[in-house]
Amino acid sequence: MLEVSVSGYHSWRRRPICNRRQEDALLKQRIKDVHQRSKRRYGAPRIHAELHAGGIRVSRKRVARLMRVRGLQGKGKRRWVRTTDSDHTLPVCPNLLERQFRVSQPNQVWAWDLTYLPTKAGWLYLAVTLDLHSRAVVGYAMDTQMPATLPLAALRMAAGRRCPPPGLVHHSDRGSQYASGIFRAELARMRARGSMSRKGDCWDNAVVESFFSSLKRELLEDTVFENQDVARHAVFEFIEVFYNRQRRHSTLGYLTPLEFERQATAA
């Protein structure tokens, strides 16, 4: 039926597998291992960077092709509701950052923002502090509500960990939590300078917006946490174990945030 002779079939069975196919078989397994370690978060660019860091020289196109063959893909982008309340009469800081997201040294510019995660028991709100030099999360806090003390707790965690010098620029949107008296007083105590985005312009705080997009895309995967405690644990693991120490960042040349800081310090 297949128009193949018996001798031809046995000859094919005895024929050795070509080197390219053998290499592809090994690469497929390596790719699958990296994909699983990232909890299926990584697409071809980051898997390619991870293989390269492990000494495996292969093109990104080949990685993408082998991922398609195995049916592997990273997690796609999702749309989320904004949580900023800028309709208030509190003082607003000038925009000192002006979208200058490339920062030469750590603890020169920090950026903050606030988002939410859904759980079956209600929302869990998350405030984070990022160092724009390395994109590392240096402070964070979670609560079931959005009081001014939530970003304040994230700021205090970051300050306790990093001990920034006077003159630090703190950038955020115009949310009422960041414009509150207690938050401004804490910045003054730290001798830090406040900076705020223009009204309704998310691009002025694009780095933190990008972090939240990655967190929700890679952490939630179309699921809802059972309760806030489960969500807290997942966020802790994502930030402390994966994002800062393992996740390769395209803006950093596919280094992790802490690797980037170590290399910058060594230089």
UniProtKB/TrEMBL annotation:
PROSITE patterns in UniProt: INTEGRASE
Boundaries of every Integrase catalytic domain copy: 102-265
Organism: Deinococcus malanensis
Name the UniProt record assigns to this protein: Transposase
SUPFAM superfamilies in the record: Ribonuclease H-like
Superkingdom per UniProt: Bacteria
